[in-house]
Amino acid sequence: MLTILRRLALGVFLILAASALLLFSDLGSRSNAPAQRKIPRVALLQHASQSVLEDGTRGMLDGLAEAGFQDGSSMQLRRYNAEGDTTVSNTIARDMVNGDYDLLLTISTVSLQAVANANQTTRRPHVFALVSKPSITGVGISDKDPLAHPSWLAGYGTLQPVPEAFEVARAMNPQLRKVGVVWNASEANSEGQVKAAREFCKQAGIELMEATVDSSAGVGEAAAAVCSRGAEAIFVPGDVMVMVSMDTLIAAANRSGVPVFTVTPPSVRKGALFDIGADYHRVGLEAGRLAAEILNGRDPASVEIVNFMPENLMINEATLARYADKGWRLPDDVRNRVHLVIDREGQEAPGPAAANAPAPTVKKRDKPWKFSIILYSESLPAEETLQGLKDGMATWPLKQGQGQDYTFRVGNAQGDVGALGALMDNAMQDKSDIIIPLSTPSLQSALQRVKSLPIVFSMVANPMAAGAGASYEDHLPNVTGITVMAPAGEMLDKLQKYFPAYRRIGTLFCPAEANSVYLREVLLAEAEKRGLILESVAVNSPSELADAAMSLAAKPIDAIVQISDNISSAGFSAITQAARQRHKPLFSLNSTTLPLGAPVVFGRDYHDAGVVTAEVLMRVMNGESPGKIPFALSPKVVMQASIPNARAVGMELPPAFLAEMEKVVEK
Predict the structure, then answer these.
(1) What confidence score (pLDDT) does residue 243 get?
(2) 83: DSSP letter
């Protein structure tokens, strides 16, 4: 027995010795074998849904992709958006630094400050962009030594050309003596730019008339105030709070006969006279390239933090013509620096400085692209969105038509939900490359039937309610698009401010439309926040609309605040008629209803929604995964009023309220 045990022990010893010998002999080959590279985890914080910040974010992701870091394959990306809320930004920043990310990215000064402050102990690598002056953010960046900064922090400053903006304004109007500025004193970037404006104006003999705001709701009123004090122009710095309310500011300035100039392109698309600032996509691109270098091993401490400001000058000739009688003109030396011109008809064209710039690139294929655009019903919002989509496509370096680079077919269900399914089936049988649903019912039908083709939607208030995903960032892999959520809260703010007697409001909604139910819930929540009472009447079909409108107008309400859904959009005239018969003040959250009798409209610009949908469509054509493109809110809001329409319902519009409108119909 003892002999057997000795033999077993000897056998075990020999096996272990042989294993050790094999491991030792393989050591050299294993040490030289390439290790499998870990896919980096990256988090990106953008402070608000604003065109300048969107451009920078897109550029940053393009720079990463250029170096081979693609979300979903060679990089795991988590995108955050604080939607302009500093408290939310700070909460997100804490989540980012505690989230085991390999790299943190931020867009804007506020985002830099939030993440840098939260990251002081964790010290994760952090790359920032679209920051006016990093040295004044209070995060440890020197103004004198480009290498004196926290060793884990890197990026570029993009100091807006404030003196240059005033020089251009003076060149365009040598008699300019008084300039107003609206700004948020809690934003370090804005404070720095206003200081630069003060210094220039002091030397140039210009009176700078300042108005500070602490919320976006006060921007229009502040702009009207500086105009009433005699401002001959309004300057807009790179202030995120003010940029978010740019439509309101420009509308107030236009009502006072005062042009607006900015350092935040492309505000000319909203009606500013000119913008001179950075090409923010290019700034983001350089920051993305830097981020890729750091992911590949570069030490952030070795990065010199310097100012990078590729000039971008844009001019709106329609606005220029409006103020020509006040001495504004475009001298040749300024014209030669222009990169983008919006002509008197509203068409965009490259300026002299961009004449040789490459056109936007869209990947060509051996066969034409084929798109199917699916409408639920005929309405003015659908028409404007479709036209904006076509206009956006027209800017592509591709030709449309049979035998050309792309074709599209428009299908209209004429309000029949059942017909939507047939249109989707036809689109797939026709071998469409991308489905483009316009409206919530169209999107719902696409989600039910289209499982593999890319879906790029537009004219949808809440894609989550339609089943497209959990949030703007977390959604189905084949779906992306543009939302048109109406600014109900902003509308009720105006109502409370200028019409305090209106305490009970009413609206119509369609229980069968997910978007209509959602919009009614949003309006109810916003009304309750402000102590208002909402009465609502259900409409189940277009044939019921007239009776439902009369029923609503007969209720003891002070005003109708109509949400924008498919039924009310198609038959808004019935709502107007009921309001006029009962002399009920009428506000519309549908921007297209002023010609249909609405006294006040406050809603998304549907044509603009179509244009930005074409931009998203181009990104999908260029190979981006729809699931990695966050849903985006169409940025432009239309605020208009009609004095004749107001009289017809027995409603008087206060002059201060009209001053905030971008357009007022007086006859």
Answers:
(1) 86
(2) T
